[in-house]
Amino acid sequence: MELRRLRYFLRIAAEGSLGKASNALGIAQPALGRQIQMLESELGVKLFQRVPKGMRLTEEGEYLKQAIEHPVEQVSIALRNVRTHAVPVEASLVLGLPPVIVQVLGPRLVSRLQRDFPNLKLKVVEGDSGKLAAELAGGVVDMALLIGIFPADKVFHAEIMSESLLLVSPPQSPIAKRSHVAFSELPALPLIVPGTQANLRTQLAKAELAAGISLNIILEIDSSELAKQAVSAELGYAILPAVAFKAETERGELVGIPIIDPEISQVIRLAVRPHWPVPRATYDAVERAIFEEWFAAVSSGEWPAKWLIDLDGIGRPVADDAV
User: Fold this and answer.
1) What pLDDT sits at residue 198?
2) 152 and 293: one domain?
3) pTM higher than 0.70, yes or no?
4) In 10 A of CB 295, how many CB atoms?
5) For 241, which of 52, 75, 159, 272 is 20 to 30 Å away at the CA?
6) Which is it for strands 191-193 and 237-241: parallel, antiparallel or unpaired?
7) Are residues 240 and 172 part of one domain?
């Protein structure tokens, strides 16, 4: 199977039209169409359906696109680097960030990486930690920050920081004036918690068992934005990190109350996919830049959390043959 056919396939999928892809690639439309027919014949499946305004991926075509898009880009970069090895090495980084982290750290990282690494092809993807962990294992994402999630065994990961989870209340609630709330008091409150954040649910279940109580969970909402709206509407109380509702706190719209006996917290991990094909020096430099911006956000108070590692001791966290 020729790599160029896969590139043609990806371009048509991106453009949604054989004609637009033909113009973009500088290839005659009939010739491009024949290349796709040959690819479909080789695979034994239809990859596109013709629709009034162009071409739409079939289910098989969508699967192929998701499976090869990142690997084909990596191969293309590797081939360019081999041909032009005297030129500064070009690298590709797909960085995965959960929604809350995108807001607080995303602008810092994009600005720093674009400034320090002009040859770095950067792509930032947003998704929940479970999805990002799966994409790391599949090689779709190169590096990600994961909240309360252990990735697959083959994915390197390290605990970087811990943040306390607070009880989020509307300011008019009597509990909003409290300096803290004991975990044993939570059954009296209608709670809004994530449905898929396994680490938090496990923590809550263990604390319930230890205290001999049962929490009153009235809603399961994975979106922190929607959870905050539900709290503002006085539907219940959420359990979130301070950074997730920092803006609302500053505007006086929400209040965070520490939970004690026990304190509930979550760990943020850095995870790197296996066999990420970048030179060691590039990896070390990119990692250092990410950690420095992350540490700056924490030390400035922009991201209320406890830093767990020694920034001066940061080295290459994976074996030489792993990337």
Assistant:
1) 56
2) yes
3) no
4) 17
5) 272
6) parallel
7) yes
In this structure, what DSSP letter does residue 120 have? Answer: E
State CA 55 to chain mean position distance: 30
How far, in Å, CA of 74 to CA of 297, rounded? 31
Average pLDDT on 260-281 reads 88
Please identify, among 60, 83, 106, the residue that sits at the C-terminal boundary of a domain: 83
- State the burial class of residue 114 (Cβ atoms within 10 Å of its Cβ: 0-12, 13-18, 19+): exposed
Overall average pLDDT of the 110-117 stretch: 91
Residue environment code for 182-209, b if the CB has 16+ CB neighbours within 10 A, otherwise e: ebebbeebebbbbeebebbbebbeebbe
Ramachandran angles phi, psi of 181, nearest 5°: -135, 135
Find where tokens 């070009």 sit.
Answer: 90
Asked whether residue 276 falls in the same domain as residue 310, the answer is: yes
DSSP sequence for 32-90: HHHHHHHHHHHHTS--EEEETTEEEE-HHHHHHHHHHHHHHHHHHHHHHHHHTTTSPPP
Q: Residue 202 belongs to what domain range?
A: 163-265
Running DSSP on this structure, what letter comes out for residue 26?
T
Domain closes at, from 265, 287, 306: 265
- Quick check: 27 and 51 in contact, CB under 8 A? no
As a whole number of angstroms, the distance between CA 189 and CA 54 comes to 54
Query: In this predicted model, what pLDDT tens digit does every residue of 50-59 receive, in sequence order?
Result: 888 889 999 9
225, 194 Cβ separation under 8 angstroms: no
Q: Is 97 exposed, middle or buried (0-12, 13-18, 19+ CB in 10 A)?
A: buried
Does residue 261 share a domain with residue 168? Answer: yes
